[in-house]
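Box 3.1. Reading complex inputs
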Amino acid sequence: MNNISKYKLRNIGEGGMEVESRNKIEKKHKKPKNIWEDFFKDKTHGGHRYSTEEFLSMEAREKLFHLNGGKTLLDFGCGSAELLTYYAPEYEQLVGVDFSPSMLEEASKRLKEKKCNNIDLILANHETLWKNLDSKFDRITAAGVIQYLTFQEIDDFIAKSSGHLSTEGKIVFFDILDPRLYPLWKLGVFAPNAGILKALYRVGCDFHTSISAALRNRPRNIYGFTHNPYKIQKIANKHDFEMRYVQSMYYEYKYHAIMFRA
Ligand SMILES: C[S@@+](CC[C@H](N)C(=O)[O-])C[C@H]1O[C@@H](n2cnc3c(N)ncnc32)[C@H](O)[C@@H]1O
């Protein structure tokens, strides 16, 4: 895995990212490629239901259960490493990838704070990532990221992952938006104060947000696209993976897709 360390974002002084790396990043990523890259370019947190360490550690434990071992792990869309730092003690070597410089800057600080010396960070997107890797992983995972990819991009991602996965390796996508449950969640069906009037109010707010976001050519929120699990399963099967899907433990409207070679 030494080959990867050349892409590592080194920490300096008060937890800042090395200036040279930052300049390099900005040069490479001068203009945002898509609306999501633009949306995340200055974000610093992954939008978990609660941002307490207690909650993040519980979420990570659920994810580690499904990851179920392996020695090396690639976390695509690692954000500010809120989960990745909890994976670190369970793996020999980890790589976090994200296209947001601000997220990676936060991740870099967090790695330092938590003394995680076995994680390398790479600034890349779903297309540019692969040319930066020349080793295989036991686990390729992504938590709360697949909703920013189209079905075609997911298809390409699984195909490329397959080439970077060890023989017994697994691809695990966490917290994909379920199109059957997400609309119910948006209506507040799972909220403690659910009711018809509240649901109507939410529909009104959602409509207003959608229109104003469309006018500004911005995503209406952090949530992204929904993906039917059976469609993801079809893509997985096409690339000779079997797929199991399970309900997310902490998000009623999301599911996890666990893929392994048939
Ligand atoms: C909702 S956050 C989740 C972050 C992290 N996985 C976690 O659970 O804390 C989504 C992250 O995916 C990154 N992301 C989204 N689409 C991406 C892409 N195509 N390539 C690289 N990173 C991407 C965003 O920059 C953001 O940091």
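In summary: The first strand starts at residue 11 and ends at 12.
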